[in-house]
Amino acid sequence: MLDWIKDNSKAFSVALIFHAIFFGALLLNWQMDKPKKIVMEQGDVIQVTSVDANSYDAEIKKIEEKKQARKNLEKKRQAREERRLKEVEEKKKQKKAEQLKRKKAAAAKKKKAAKKKAEQEKARKLAKKKADDDKRKKEEASRKEELKQKKLKKAEEARKKVEEEKRRKEEQKRQEAERKRKAEEEKKRLAEEKRQQERANAERKRLSKGIINRHVAMIAQKIERSWRQPLDAPNNLKCKIDIVLLPSGNVVSVKVVETSGNLSFDRSVETAVRRASPLPVPTDSVIFKQFEVMRLRFEPGR
Prior knowledge:
Elements: H1 2-7, H2 9-33, H3 53-226, E1 239-245, E2 251-258, H4 263-276, H5 285-288, E3 293-298
Antiparallel strand pairs: 1-2, 1-3
């Protein structure tokens, strides 16, 4: 009821107004039926509103018709709702039936697939067993053949080993004899080379010594010719000097390593060496090695 009042508040308000007017009119008529003394004073104004009974009934009728129309609409709505719920329920039943049908179909399909898989697995196992049996037979035959070949190979290897050992020993003997022969030849060759080298060294030493002595004398003479005796130096002075030379004979440096005791004499010798550069050195590069850094005793007049 409250929901209906909320939904039709405007109509309900109109109905209340008409009911109030109706009851007010009844009350007014009842009071008019009583004998009353009406005293009107000057200046008072009375306004009276009359109510048409037919109009009121018409409004009441309209309200009732609207109520009936709402009831009819509510019945239609309920009927529609019932139909909708029935359709929903029907759809649920249909969906459930379809799901059940699909489940049954899936179960049947699964069962069929399982059966097919089982048959395939059985066939696979049979094929595998047959293949394994064939493989085992082949492997057994292969092992027998392999053992046979191994025996033959072992016998052949033993024969080859005996022959190889025989050839190895013969080759070892041959190589040993060849080694001894070559060692003897090498020994003779080395001895001959040593004798030749000794003779060559002796000859080279003899020649080198002569060349060295000759060039040392030449160098000493050239230095002495370039030397100027200091006025304060006695005639019997001597010193030792180290001279660094290039293959061209040019003097790189000169140094007194054993002084004469007279500074003027020592300096005059160093000056003489530089003035005599380039010095006469051997052209043989091997012999020149002894002249790269040479120590010379300078003793003029000797």
